[in-house]
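User: Run a structure prediction on this.
Assistant: Running it now.
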Amino acid sequence: MVLAALAAALGGFLFGFDTAVINGTVDAVRAQFALGAQLTGFAVSCALVGSAVGAWYAGPLADRVGRVLTMRVAALLLLASALGCGLVYGVWDLILWRFVGGLGVGMASVIAPAYIAEVAPAAARGRLGSMQQLAIVLGIFAALLSDAWLAALAGGASKPLWWGLEAWRWMFLALALPAVLYGVVTARLPESPRYLVARGDTARAGEVLRRMLGLEAEALERKVADIRDSLRHRERPRLRDLLKPGGGLLPVVWIGLLLSVFQQFVGINVIFYYSATLWRSVGFSEADALTITVLTSITNVLVTLVAFSLVDKVGRKPLLVVGSAGMTATLAVMAWCFSRATVGPTGLTLPEGIGPVALVAANLYVVFFGVSWGPVVWVLLGEMFPNRIRAIALAVAAAAQWLANFAITTTFPMLAEIGLSFAYGLYASFALLSLVFVLVAARETKGIELEDMRD
């Protein structure tokens, strides 16, 4: 069971790697292709449009051909993207291949948490579901570390490295290795028992459940019967299943959508996509900016491990409350720090003593996100929906998350031109709204069996 969850979570690693690898390439790509702020933002965020499309179709595809085959398709798309992005001739080629990679990331972002939730027992589902987020932050760390290493090796991201290719191209090509590994590992995964029951293959479903959960014959029969009962309405969910009889979305779907949107509207991916550019803009060298980015990603990994240990003990909702409160405070401090910046001949300059405060606030912000909204939202999305609509509801929620990510990532360069204090003040406002939302609407799912989840 743990090995199956780890293998599925490799999709999260690719998710993190593919989305963060752009960080070290932004300035080099912008200079090489002479891009303005708007096209730079789109080149960074176009993968997120692909991710929204991939997430949208992943649910129906997974219900049609299975969870495991869908993971293999995602691996192939990510491999193609790695090779394409590394060998582009112009910015529109880059945008195309980033979009293709986004399709794979979006599919992986839906299938991995759904698969993990469907093979895990309720008592351990939070910890196993957190493997998805742990894999994501490890992927982010690996991408940022490889960016820093390749840039240092070449003497800069825009400098040539092996075979005459610039270092930024090798940053993209590095994604090929984990993409191949993902395809190989997922080829050995057992299919989800809930998918097998939906297809009428109860014998294989029972065998997978026996191997995963170690159930005896009588308990195994009851479990298969419970799954069959929870799926009795129809085998292949459709979008209309997300609607109430009187019209409008089911409450649980609204909650999933808003969890997804708030996870992105607090601005976390600005840190992971633009942090190297951000720290360079306030006076740090390229090498120092990349080092700071790597240290931030290490922080993210460590606090995700903390969340991993707490999510099944403390519960989902308390962690979200703490995270929202902490992010509101730290984002407000960052907005104040950048409001003190002055514009000089070399760009923005923070007053003496303010730079360290901004760095500490940024890393504390990552701590609060990493221990709460990062892992917990993926755990909730994998488990909160009833069996009969899980795949399609998760696909819709994940697509909304990617669209929200696209909106934040595309607009940041333009918001930064208005003022970094305005940008971080806006994210602080969304963090405060997320706190209100959690207190009022979020549901606790700790210890509840998937068959008992309600609309």
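The longest strand covers residues 342-344.
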